[in-house]
Amino acid sequence: MPKFLTEAQVQQFKDLGYVSNLRVMDAKQTQAIRDLLEDFEKRQGSPLHGSQRHKTHLLFPWLNELVRETKIVDAIEDLYGHNILCWTSNFFIKEAHDPGFVSWHQDSTYWGLSSPDVVTAWIALSPSNKSNGAMAVIPGTHSMEQIPHRDTYSKNNLLTRGQEVAVEVDEGRGVTLELEPGEMSLHHVRIIHGSPSNNSDARRIGFAIRYIPTYVKQIEGDDSATLVRGEDDFKTFAHEPRPSQEMEPAFVKLHQEITDKSAKILYKGTKVDSYDASLADPKVRSA
């Protein structure tokens, strides 16, 4: 019996590759997290940038708690079992009237993971809708094998390599996953998805957490992950420690080492080998 999802939602994920509008936080909890984010940005004097948007749960204790949130992890357990790693996390922020967009793609293209048993929990910290660049998916495409992609490095494409599927996409089949603050969607690593630019007057803020069962391996290099539930009998990822305070110096150093390793995997086969500011801001973002 599922812990959080209904049996119908579990079946939808299996059949269509996504499920949406899952309430995991109330308005007060959601606003508190947004306030913590924007308070840090105010003190820093700029929005999160570069590698700060990647593996952000290693920099802020309140995000480390979020990746372990019972309702979220219960939903992942309903899909992939009790032994779960948080492989990574990313802030997906589109500022008001941001021209950035995300081309149609599969997440699995450059991640280097051994299995497509990967799910993204996309959590809305602001409204996410058609006017501000909400993510859309093509239902059922998760059942396809890895599709060839082409790298564009397009100026306003927010993906790591500006990658896009090298096949025609029937956009008429797309479903926009509109979310209210505190709701999340779940999508499979191979579902084709993307998002348009933010044409509204307000920020669109999302936080995505990528979860994997512990049997999944990284086959393209050294990697690490955070154990959020159960046991890890495979130990193919180095286990990440838990921060005790915001931007703790030891964790900032560790975070940079980890993001450098991640970049070598994401940019393998290109001349890019690190999250340098000119590329990783904004290109560590996604849908």
Structure at a glance:
With 287 residues, the protein is an alpha+beta fold.
What does the model show?
With 287 residues, the chain is of the alpha+beta class. 24% of the residues lie in helices and 22% in strands. The protein has 6 helices and 13 strands. A 7-stranded mixed β-sheet has the order 1-9-4-11-2-12-13. It has a 4-stranded antiparallel β-sheet with strand order 3-10-5-8, with no helix packed on it. Strands 6-7 form a two-stranded antiparallel ribbon. The longest helix is centred in the first third of the chain and has 18 residues.
Give the SSE layout.
Blueprint: H1 7-16, E1 18-23, H2 27-44, H3 61-66, H4 70-80, E2 84-94, E3 102-105, E4 119-124, E5 136-137, E6 149-150, E7 164-165, E8 175-176, E9 183-188, E10 193-195, E11 204-213, E12 224-229, E13 238-239, H5 249-266, H6 277-283
